[in-house]
Design brief:
The complex is a heterodimer of chains A (661) and B (111).
Chain A (H helix, E strand, L loop, with lengths): L3 H4 L8 H4 L17 E6 L33 H6 L1 H6 L5 E6 L6 H8 L13 H10 L4 E2 L9 E2 L7 E6 L11 E2 L1 H14 L3 E4 L11 H11 L3 E5 L18 E6 L4 E8 L4 E5 L6 E8 L10 H5 L15 H4 L3 E5 L5 H10 L4 E5 L15 E4 L4 H8 L5 E4 L3 E3 L28 E4 L3 E4 L10 E4 L2 H18 L5 H10 L12 H7 L6 H4 L4 E2 L4 H11 L5 H9 L14 E6 L2 E10 L5 E9 L3 E6 L2 E4 L4 E10 L7 E9 L4 E10 L2
Parallel strand pairs in A: 1-5, 1-7, 2-5, 7-8, 8-9, 9-18, 12-13, 13-14, 14-15, 22-29
Antiparallel strand pairs in A: 3-4, 10-11, 10-16, 10-17, 12-16, 19-20, 21-23, 23-27, 24-26, 24-28, 25-27, 28-29
Helix pairs in contact in A: 6-13, 7-8, 13-14, 17-18
Chain B lengths: L6 E9 L10 H4 L15 H20 L7 E3 L4 E8 H8 L6 E4 L3 E2 L2
Antiparallel strand pairs in B: 1-3, 1-4, 2-3
């Protein structure tokens, strides 16, 4: 991406890129993510993108060979029919690519929906290319087209290899890529067989079913040593919406970052509205029209209000050129891609667009077909009222792009806890990463011919974490996926949304926003494995045989789901007293003495025992945390933190619990 | 209303842990651990024997409900299969003691 590696401190002195030997992408300077394979389960990949080339701009090879032990292969059928694949595929960079479509309807269904070359891992939609280049695209790739002003982009783990598993499909209308779990589980199964190190899964999923096939496939993937990053979902800001609840997955919320593309619209009455914009030129002053009033006679009023492009409406336009030409159009945000709305305005002869939300959602700066500013739902009524007046005019002003915006805030769309799984004894999402207005490589067919595009969503935050996991796997090859997850969680920082002990903040950020430099040296980690997960399932749901649960108890496992050794603590009820157990391992190079402290949880007395731990390198110790009711409001959800400190490390775990009966 | 012959895609999960029902030599196998550990090869004879065993179980279960060929056999990260089934066939499979769950394939989308 263009700016989030810097926002995360990857390229600063002492940052993870420098710790891993640089990121220049040459054999002489092997860098971040070397020999790590990121499996991207998504809508495919655009193999010709410079982000996935194994050569520099002079055609010299920049990778020595395939990561040792990786067994993945390329889609032979696709290579046979698409010459470009032959040159771009199965290189040490884009190391494998497969496609899965039996659940979607098989080859016949694809052939009816897309040109023949997309009956392959080739990406049409662009989403898979975006997530793959975010996680592990090459360093220093110059953006082109409208994105050129942003300079170069880099993946988070720029020297990692990419294995693309295409199991999401879209049609030529550039609609949202979709898929079926039957194909997606097949993709996970193949990725595990191939031996990827990290999986990125920027796909919606269950909010409450821990036995969902995709979740179980990820459990066995994690058991095989694979780190799995998954999107928390885009159903925010409502509470209780977080997806992918399984503790063996790292569930990623989305935050804003410090790049600040600000634009505005000035109306003829002198009022000015600020929002998100990348308008390089101004539009207007020109007549302002409400799109709801300028539809073609037979067009669906809902589609007109949302400025549907012909490409989203079976090739049929909905805006009337006679009423739109030369004007600025006020359009409602809706389900179709935002950039398609300005395309509809341009195709009808309009010269600018004011895009306005219809509910509480994020404001996004996109590359539009006409100068555009994206405004908040709170501005909508006034804008529509003014547009209805005689002689209404507007100007879309030139935008400015700053790089010092206060950040991170939780992106409005990011799904929140509490999770519907685990009976209140599990915290999700786990952590947060940048996910709003992310510039990365895309597939041109789905992005109006562009090779780079902006996108927002937890789809964008998950690959940031997949890339970070690749960096930590490179740096600490002996760490399990859960140790990597722990390092990322216990070193997180707080969003700017409010008091960090406010449970609403914890339910939006999880353990916090990732801080990779700290994650490289977390001090202590909380590890857990498949037997712990099965014990958790015994305590929360059906599916594990009673005999197996009994055996786990005999083996010393607690079936209390709050006891799962995660770097966060969630307790459904603290009526009188509740004790949870945890275990930490010193992953530092020296012996250290850690002291426990807690914050928040007003009306609950918290006792950590023992309150100090002295651990040699590699040594593990357990401790308990006892919560005693001490006057908190009954049924109140409370938030707080447990922090172990040795003077140089702060190992912080979020806590959420409900007080009283 | 769907008639008795209307089919949908279902994912049938046989066990939580693919190795749980394997009656071969598990210690020797190490075969289910085909992740980043480069010492394990899915094409190794003992691994192929194991995956053949799982696929055989899948086909036996399908045959018991007069099902056809599976769309997929899952053998590494998931013990089960995907198949086109009628509602009755899906219910019959779900009632088997060796089946953990039968889940109808429902569309998901990018985030």
């Amino acid at each position: 991406t263009s700016s989030t590696p810097s926002f995360l401190g990857l390229d600063e002195p002492g940052g993870l890129w420098e710790q891993l030997g640089g990121a220049a992408g040459s054999l002489r300077e092997p860098g971040a993510g070397e020999d790590i394979v990121i499996g991207v389960i998504d809508s495919g990949i655009w193999p010709e993108s410079r982000s996935f080339s194994d050569r520099d701009e002079r055609g010299r090879r920049t990778y020595a060979g395939r990561p040792f032990g990786f067994r993945g292969d390329c889609d032979a059928a696709a290579a046979a029919v698409d010459d470009s694949w032959k040159a771009s595929l199965c290189t040490p960079k884009l190391i494998a690519a497969q496609h899965f479509n039996a659940g979607w309807g098989g080859d016949e269904a694809i052939a009816e929906q897309l040109p023949w070359e997309f009956l392959s891992p080739r990406d049409y939609n662009g989403h898979g290319t975006h997530t793959a280049s975010t996680a592990g695209g090459n360093h220093g790739v110059a953006a082109t087209g409208a994105a050129a002003a942003f300079g170069t982009i880099s993946g988070i783990a720029p020297r990692a290899s990419i294995a693309a598993y295409k199991a999401l499909w879209s049609t030529e209308d550039a609609s949202t890529a979709q898929g079926y779990p039957s194909d997606l589980v097949a993709a996970v199964d193949q990725a595990v067989a191939d031996g990827v190190d990290v999986i990125n899964y920027s796909v919606s999923g269950t909010t409450g079913n821990l036995l969902d096939p995709v979740e179980i496939a990820f459990m066995n993937a994690a058991d095989a040593g694979i780190f799995v990053a998954a999107s928390a979902g885009n159903s925010g800001p409502a509470a209780g919406t977080v997806a992918h609840p399984s503790p063996w997955i790292t569930t990623v919320a989305a935050g804003t970052h410090d790049r600040d593309p600000v634009g505005s619209a000035t109306l003829g009455d002198g009022s000015r509205y600020s929002g998100a914009s990348l308008a390089a030129t101004a539009a207007g002053p020109a007549p302002l029209v409400d799109s709801a009033t300028v539809g073609l006679p037979d067009a669906d009023p809902t589609l007109v209000a949302q400025c549907y492009a012909a490409v989203d409406n079976g090739g049929v336009p909905v805006l009337d050129p006679a009423s739109v030409a030369g004007k600025i159009v006020l359009c409602d945000r809706g389900v179709t891609p935002r950039v398609n709305k300005s395309r509809a305005v341009a195709e009808a002869g309009g010269i600018g667009m004011i895009l306005v939300n219809t509910d509480e959602n994020s404001l996004n700066a996109d590359f539009h077909s006409v100068p555009t500013v994206h405004l908040a739902e709170t501005d909508r009524a006034a804008l529509k009222a003014y547009a209805a007046t005689e002689g209404a005019t507007a100007t879309v002003n030139v935008a400015t792009v700053g790089d010092d915006a206060p950040a991170p805030y939780t992106a409005a769309f990011s799904s929140r806890g509490p999770t519907q799984a685990g009976g209140g004894n599990l915290l999700k999402p786990d952590l947060m990463a940048p996910g709003q207005d992310i510039l990365a490589a895309v597939a041109p067919p789905g992005f109006n011919g562009a090779g780079f595009g902006l996108a927002s969503g937890t789809s964008m935050s998950a690959p940031h974490v997949a890339g970070l996991a690749a960096l930590l796997a490179d740096q600490h090859p002996d760490w399990s996926p859960m140790m990597i997850k722990s390092a990322l969680m216990t070193t997180g920082s707080d969003v700017l949304d409010g008091d960090a002990t406010d449970p609403a903040v914890i339910f939006s950020q999880g353990a916090g926003h990732v801080q990779p430099t700290g994650a490289a040296d977390p001090g202590l980690v909380y590890d857990n494995d498949v037997n712990d997960w099965l014990a958790f399932l015994c305590g929360t749901t059906q599916g594990v045989e009673e005999a197996a649960c009994d055996a786990l108890v005999e083996d010393g496992h607690s079936l209390d789901p709050s006891d799962l050794n995660t770097p966060s603590i969630a307790v459904d009820r603290v009526s009188r007293s509740q004790t949870v157990t945890r275990e930490v391992t010193n992953v530092g190079d020296t012996a250290a003495t850690y002291t426990a402290s807690t914050t928040g949880l007003d009306g609950i007395d918290v006792t950590v025992s023992p309150s100090t731990l002295t651990l040699a390198p590699g040594e593990t110790a357990s401790f308990t945390v006892t919560f005693e009711y001490a006057g908190a409001s009954v049924n109140a959800t409370l938030g707080g933190y447990l922090t172990w400190t040795d003077g140089s490390h702060d190992v912080r775990s979020p806590i959420v619990l409900r007080a009283g009966d | 209303a769907p008639d008795d012959e209307t089919t949908s895609t279902y994912i049938v999960q046989m066990t939580l842990d693919p190795v749980a029902t394997y009656d071969g030599d598990v210690d020797d196998l190490a075969a289910t651990r085909v992740g980043p550990d480069e010492t394990i090869d899915p094409e190794a004879p003992e691994v192929l024997e194991y995956t053949d065993h799982l696929q055989e179980q899948h086909r036996d279960a399908l045959a018991d409900v007069d099902g056809g060929e599976p769309l997929y056999d899952y053998v590494y990260a998931f013990d089960g299969f995907a198949a086109e089934l009628t509602e009755a066939q899906a219910a019959d499979l779900a009632a088997r003691p060796d089946v953990v769950a039968v889940t109808e394939d429902e569309k998901v989308e990018v985030d």
